[in-house]
Amino acid sequence: MAKRTRKHSLILYLNDDEKYILDTKYKLSGMRSRMAFLRHLIIYGYVYDVDYKELHDYNVNLSRIGNSLNQIAKRMNATGHVYDEDVKEVKEIMKQVWHTQKSMLSKQPCIRQ
User: Fold this and answer.
1) How far apart are CA 20 and CA 39, in angstroms?
2) Residue 18 region by backbone torsions, left for phi larger than 0, else alpha for psi between -120 and 50, else beta
3) pTM of structure
């Protein structure tokens, strides 16, 4: 037997879905062997820990904004008039949307290689 440079073995158990994902990603990688692909993932891969709380809060805020806009649109359709207060409110709501989105984007991790 040839002298191995890698002396440690690893046994990995996968369910059907995980195996399918591994096989699909391995094939798409174009690498020669699955072991080389796995070693590459271990050395160069990333692990993401995603906190969905901010996304949930963002969606709640968007829902509130949508409700406010619907109420304004309903009032405009009922009266046939556009009121300055409603226009100001829509502008303020849009500022809130942009502020929330900028805030979320600024908190995204920066990945450098």
Assistant:
1) 18
2) alpha
3) 0.44
